[in-house]
Amino acid sequence: MEKKIKIKYIHSPIGRKKDQKDTIRCFGFTRLNQVKEFPDTPCIRGMVKKIPHLVQVVQ
């Protein structure tokens, strides 16, 4: 069974760099406090590491 990671969108990217806004858009977030589940891969972990001030990993 594949491991999953839940990510919560906690802060708006307004006023942030374009690459950070693009990362939020790639995750598919549209509203604050939205939680989405993704496969736990190095690619997803790298994206989360790029914007730790905008998202939170939840259990």
SSE blueprint:
Elements (H helix, E strand, L loop, with lengths): L3 E6 L8 H10 L7 E5 L2 H9 L4 E4 L1
Antiparallel strand pairs: 1-2, 1-3
Tell me about this structure.
The chain has a three-stranded antiparallel beta sheet, with no helix packed on it. The relative contact order is 0.36. It is built from two helices and three strands; from the N terminus they run βαβαβ. It has helices spanning 18-27, 42-50, and strands at 4-9, 35-39, 55-58. The chain is α+β, with helices and mostly antiparallel strands. It has a single domain, classed as Ribosomal Protein L30, Chain: A (2-Layer Sandwich).
Ends distance: 17 Å
User: What proportion strand?
Assistant: 25-35%
Helical/strand content category: alpha+beta
The CATH class name reads Alpha Beta
Got a strand count? 3
Order of helices and strands: EHEHE
Q: Biggest sheet: strands side by side, in what order?
A: 2-1-3
Supply Rg: 11 Å
Query: CATH architecture, please?
Result: 2-Layer Sandwich
CATH H-level name... which superfamily? Ribosomal protein L30/L7
Largest sheet: 3 strands, antiparallel
Helix share of residues? 25-40%
SS element count, helices: 2
Q: How many structural domains are formed by the residues?
A: 1
Shape: globular
Give the integer mean of the pLDDT values.
96
Return residue spans where pLDDT drops below 50 for at least 5 consecutive residues: none
